[in-house]
From TrEMBL:
Residues 10-323 form the DNA-directed DNA polymerase X domain. Its EC number is 2.7.7.7. Residues 347-427 form the Polymerase/histidinol phosphatase N-terminal domain. The lineage of its organism: Bacteria, Pseudomonadati, Pseudomonadota, Betaproteobacteria, Burkholderiales. InterPro entries: DNA-dir_DNA_pol_X, DNA_pol_B_palm_palm, DNA_pol_lamdba_lyase_dom_sf, DNA_Pol_thumb_sf, DNA_pol_X_beta-like, HHH_MUS81, NT_sf, PHP_dom. The gene is polX. The keyword DNA repair applies. GO terms for molecular function: exonuclease activity. Keywords: DNA damage, DNA repair, DNA-directed DNA polymerase, Exonuclease, Hydrolase, Nuclease, Nucleotidyltransferase, Transferase. This is DNA-directed DNA polymerase. Signal peptide: none annotated. SMART domains: POLIIIAc, POLXc.
Length: 582
């Protein structure tokens, strides 16, 4: 009889867990069944022992004297006791597809059924498996039925939802399309996507929709019949949760119009902000909930967000600040920042044209910038090293500069086009174009596009060297991250920002939804170092100029006002600020 888990020796538990996992993985690989059984038997044996294997080794016992344990298993047991892990496990983990390894960790799924799923469905990820389950393809497989299919889907969704966050490149189109669908029903008075999405975080765990409307049940019903719904987690008279086909969870709540403000505060969060707010209310003898602010049984606020904050003695706090990062103290003392808004932006300092990898000509990009009311746009195509992007040679860049001069001369009243470049920072920190060429421009935007994995000292030195270049204006997307695809590179950002401050140049908050680099955190560091930030769309098409708002949101999350941003300056002031970088 195995002992109750809590009484088991930790070394024996570790050995059993590792041997069981090895057996599972070998089984998926269809290894020799005797080998598989040897690991399972050994796991069961150590689980049932009252003496710890560590204690046995300490007293010099011979493990091969145990039933079924040969020299090989004995050596692995010693390895696990001494190192906590086992090289063999690491090796078989790399031989089995990673999602199968994850699959084996789902409750109730053994290696036999994992193998069937892998072989019969030709699946390569847990996402695909979730989609197959949602499409009822699992129940037809040998050894599965409708019930095990729905249990599997539940376990998968819980697993996927726990680990996964979605970048705005996925979440925003998703929220926009769902909003359009719901509003088209004609059932809805107000709809807000609350949660981390409303706070403007660069990734979201799920979407939280808050709605008012007359017929609550009908609204919920309309929601769960959205064509992108893959799976309903729950549905009640005023709320429902679903998983969309792309894996994102959406929680919807229909609330009473007279409590909309209270619900909005509650479901916008963040949770730490809510908790701080609740404490503040309690100190005044008030209770705050998703239904309103109460003194005893009397409801004293709740219709609007402002009424909720006012009831606890605060001005309204912008959602981007609601992270319990000091905003409640600032609100109490009347020192909330006057946050930057998109309309403060006077131009865009990172834009591509069809000369490199953009889709549109100078003229078309300028026309779109004019519609946005900009005073200026910097044309910053790639340098030659970025061959896939058709980077500009010195000659082509000079020709573009001439074209820009002509354009400006012929387009009175249009945004002024600035002559720029997005020059590649090479591996050694030098720039990808000669000084003479760079010196003719209005600004030089520099960025790394390769060698993202250098060690931190080398990466930092590389970027510091680039910043030191006599013609360096703005460091673009400093960390090189691509949300969901590539991690930020290892660089000492604080040191880089200090150097930028000393050199008198600038840093970019790239507003592409997959980049948002600098992030809110990076923007905060820049402000601490006294570095002005260029919020830039990095547009590759006219529509991309609208990315600007995402960058402004990150800046607001960093408590930025208008003066913290380079491109809120009118043209003359901007040119002065750029001139001393050149
Ligand atoms: P996410 O989805 O991980 O990106 O982050 P949120 O902030 O959207 O979190 P979520 O979706 O779990 O919940 C939405 C909001 O609901 C959250 O920001 C605050 C509120 N909320 C959720 N659970 C609690 C709770 O246990 N206590 C309090 N005070 N508020 C909560
Ligand atoms: Ca959420
Ligand atoms: Ca949620």
């Amino acid at each position: 009889m195995p002992l109750a888990a809590s009484y088991q020796n930790p070394a024996n538990q570790a050995i059993a867990a590792i041997f069981n996992e090895i057996a599972d993985l070998l089984e998926v690989e269809q290894a020799n069944p005797f080998r598989v059984r040897a690991y399972r038997n050994a796991a069961r044996l150590v689980e049932g022992m009252t003496e710890g294997v560590d204690a046995m080794l300490a007293r010099g016992a011979d493990l091969t004297a145990l039933p079924g344990i040969g020299t090989d298993l004995a050596a692995k047991m010693r390895e696990i006791v001494e190192t906590g892990t086992c090289a063999m496990l690491a090796r078989v983990r790399t031989e089995v597809p990673p999602y199968v390894v994850q699959l084996l960790q789902l409750p109730g799924l053994g290696s036999k059924r994992a193998r069937i799923l892998q072989h019969e469905l030709g699946i390569t990820s847990l996402d695909e498996l979730a989609r197959a389950a949602a499409a009822h393809r699992i129940r037809e497989l040998h050894g599965f039925g409708a019930r095990s299919e729905s249990r599997l889907l539940e376990a998968l969704n819980a697993h996927l939802a726990r680990d996964r966050r979605y970048g705005l490149a996925i979440a925003k189109p998703c929220a926009d399309a769902l909003t359009r669908y719901l509003m088209a029903s004609g059932l809805i008075d107000r709809l807000v996507v609350a949660g981390s999405y409303r706070r403007g975080r660069d990734t979201v765990g799920d979407l939280d929709l808050l709605i008012t409307g007359k017929n609550r049940a009908q609204i919920v019903d309309h929601f769960v019949h959205y064509k992108e719904v893959a799976n309903r987690i729950s549905a009640g008279p005023t709320r429902a949760s679903v998983v969309l086909k792309n894996g994102m969870q959406v929680d919807l709540r229909v609330v009473r119009a007279d409590a909309f403000g209270a619900a909005l505060v509650y479901f916008t969060g963040s949770k730490p902000h809510n908790i701080a707010l609740r404490k503040l209310a309690q100190a005044q003898g008030l209770k705050i909930s998703e239904y309103g602010v109460f003194r005893g049984k009397e409801r004293i606020a709740g219709q609007t967000e402002a009424s909720v904050y006012q009831a606890v003695g605060l001005p309204w706090i912008a959602p981007e600040l609601r992270e319990d990062h000091g905003e409640i103290d600032a609100a109490r003392s009347g020192t909330l920042p006057l946050l930057i808004e998109e309309r403060d932006i006077k131009g865009d300092l990172h834009v591509h044209t069809s000369a490199s990898d953009g889709t549109a000509s100078l003229e078309v990009m300028a026309a779109q910038a004019r519609l946005r009311g900009y005073q200026y746009v910097a044309v910053t195509d790639h340098s030659p090293r970025i061959a896939v992007a058709h980077g500009l040679t010195a000659e082509r860049l000079a020709a573009q500069a001439d074209a820009i001069d002509r354009f400006n001369a012929e387009h009175e009243g249009w945004p002024v086009l600035l002559k720029g470049v997005e020059v590649d920072i090479l591996e050694d920190g030098s720039l990808d174009l000669p000084d003479a060429v760079l010196g003719r421009l209005d600004l030089v935007v520099g960025a790394i596009h390769s060698h993202f994995n250098l060690p931190v000292a080398q990466q930092t030195a590389r970027i510091l060297r680039a910043i030191d270049h006599p013609h360096f204006s703005i460091l673009a997307h400093p960390l090189g991250r691509l949300i969901g695809e590539r991690n930020a590179c290892n660089v000492d950002l604080k040191r880089v920002l200090t150097a930028i401050a000393q050199r008198g140049c600038y840093v970019e908050a790239n507003a592409q939804p997959t980049r948002l680099d600098l992030s809110d955190y990076g923007c905060r560091l820049a402000k601490m170092e006294g570095v002005l930030v260029s919020i830039a769309s990095d547009a590759h098409s006219p529509a991309d100029l609208a990315n600007m708002s995402l960058g402004v949101t990150q800046a607001r999350r960093a408590w930025f006002g208008q003066t913290d941003v380079l491109n809120t300056r009118p043209l003359d002031a901007l040119l002065t600020l750029l001139k001393h970088t050149m």
